[in-house]
């Protein structure tokens, strides 16, 4: 659990620009999920591209963090190989889908 001295790694501390970017990533992630069939999943790169355009690669980790936030809120699941995985330990390629 984060403390005042140790903020949650997925939440920007005291940086309004980062908070705005996170909000855009969260919104893009939700919009992409909403635009797909209920059984579909998306890649974090789709979220990064939607927000970052040509600079999308810089947003890959922030896009994964957005997915972790949605998982924490119960609004998404992260999968690898079609299986739900713990976002805190997932390494490598992931997919994001609605909870089932």
TrEMBL record:
Pfam families assigned to the protein according to its UniProt record, in alphabetical order: DUF3253
Superkingdom of the source species: Bacteria
Signal sequence interval, chain numbering: none
Region (Disordered): 1-21
Name of the protein in its database record: DUF3253 domain-containing protein
């Amino acid at each position: 659990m984060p403390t005042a001295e140790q903020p949650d790694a997925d939440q920007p501390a005291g940086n309004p620009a980062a908070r705005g970017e996170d909000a855009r990533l969260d919104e893009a992630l939700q919009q992409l999920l909403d635009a797909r069939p209920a059984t579909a999943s998306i890649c974090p790169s789709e979220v990064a591209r939607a927000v970052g355009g040509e600079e999308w690669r810089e947003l890959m980790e922030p896009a994964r963090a957005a997915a972790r936030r949605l998982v924490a809120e119960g609004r998404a699941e992260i999968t690898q190989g079609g299986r739900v995985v713990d976002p805190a330990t997932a390494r490598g390629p992931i997919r994001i889908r609605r909870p089932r």
